[in-house]
TrEMBL record:
Protein name as it appears in the record: CAP domain-containing protein
Domain Dockerin: 253-311
GO BP, sorted A to Z: polysaccharide catabolic process
Alphabetized InterPro entries for the sequence: CAP_dom, CAP_sf, Dockerin_1_rpt, Dockerin_dom, Dockerin_dom_sf, EF_Hand_1_Ca_BS
GO molecular function, one term: hydrolase activity, hydrolyzing O-glycosyl compounds
Length: 311
């Protein structure tokens, strides 16, 4: 055989191999692109950003559709019980948010499969979620449960680490940055859009740390009256968001016994006020008249009042 003939045969074989490789990896590429176009059309209606294909998500979705056809089952879990999120993690996908839709049609009907997913609240929520920016679509056609021509559709949604989500504080309490209260316990809380570490500090000293959380709270009891700086630092990947409160703690005013108007003198004005609460149960506004703190304003208190009158 001549050298030229050998070269021609080699090129023919190489061409055949390349065709086989191409068809094996892109057999349903056109249909998968069509399904992505349908999804992005739905998202555009609601002002959402379009999804883009991710190679890892595509591979995992294709393998799952293929396995469901070949092993004749229908589930988000693999045949061996592996969950869809575990499949993605095992494939090396860096996850922030992930989701999965699966659908089955016999005979194959991509548009009907899409419409069926959109009619299902849970699947529709995945398609229209702002938490996803990339997708993998796997379509596989074959014999399934006695049907010669069935199509399995798997959609894997994700928001990979390739696009960093900006850390934001979504909820906080109290909502005012300056608050005033007495010395009672006060609860502060924040919630974020992504998991992070939340570090609480009081007057610059760390008092509590919650790791890998979406929300955190801190209950504080001030040791005394005064002004306190309460800080919650949400710490994500190379990003910190700080929330601060100025807490004004007011000491309870202690009134002089018998001095109803708190003017520093016990005189006829206070006697008039005392007469109004005489023979009554002590309340928060009449503690000044309860000299012996027994919960009643009576003759014993009147006797004590008389001793300090005009002083």
């Amino acid at each position: 055989m001549s050298r030229l003939m050998k070269t021609i045969i080699f090129l023919i074989i190489l061409f055949i191999v390349q065709i086989g490789i191409t068809s094996a990896t892109s057999e349903y590429a056109a249909e998968e692109q069509q399904m992505l176009d349908l999804i992005n059309g739905e998202r555009a209606i609601y002002g959402l950003e379009p999804l883009r294909f991710n190679a890892v998500l595509n591979d995992v979705a294709s393998e799952h559709s293929k396995e469901m056809i070949e092993l004749d089952y229908f589930s988000h879990d693999s045949y061996d019980g592996t969950s869809f999120s575990e499949r993605l993690a095992n494939a090396g996908y860096d996850m922030v948010y992930v989701g999965e839709n699966i659908a089955l049609r016999y005979p194959p009907d991509l548009v009907a499969a899409h419409e069926g997913l959109m009619a299902s609240p849970g699947h529709r929520a995945n398609i229209l979620s702002p938490n996803y920016n990339e997708i993998g679509i796997g379509i596989w056609v074959g014999e399934y449960s006695g049907y010669d021509n069935a199509a399995m559709y798997t959609q894997n949604f994700g928001w990979g680490d390739s696009t960093t989500t900006a850390l934001q504080v979504m909820r906080l309490s109290p909502t005012d940055s300056i608050i005033e209260s007495d010395k009672s316990a006060r609860t502060f809380s924040i919630g974020t859009n992504v998991e992070c570490d939340i570090i609480w500090s009081l007057k610059g000293e760390t008092i509590k740390v919650d790791s890998d959380v979406l929300s955190s709270y801190c209950e504080l009891v001030p040791p005394a009256g005064g002004t306190y700086q309460v800080k919650a630092t949400a710490s994500g990947s190379a990003q910190n968001v700080v929330t601060e409160w100025t807490w004004l703690v007011v000491e309870e005013t202690v009134m002089l016994k018998g001095d109803a108007n708190n003017d520093g003198l016990i005189n006829i004005l206070d006697f008039s006020a005392f007469a109004k609460v005489y023979n009554s149960t002590t309340t928060g506004t009449s503690k000044w008249a309860d000299f012996n703190d027994d919960g009643m304003i009576n003759i014993l208190d009147f006797s004590a009042f008389a001793k300090v009158y005009n002083k």
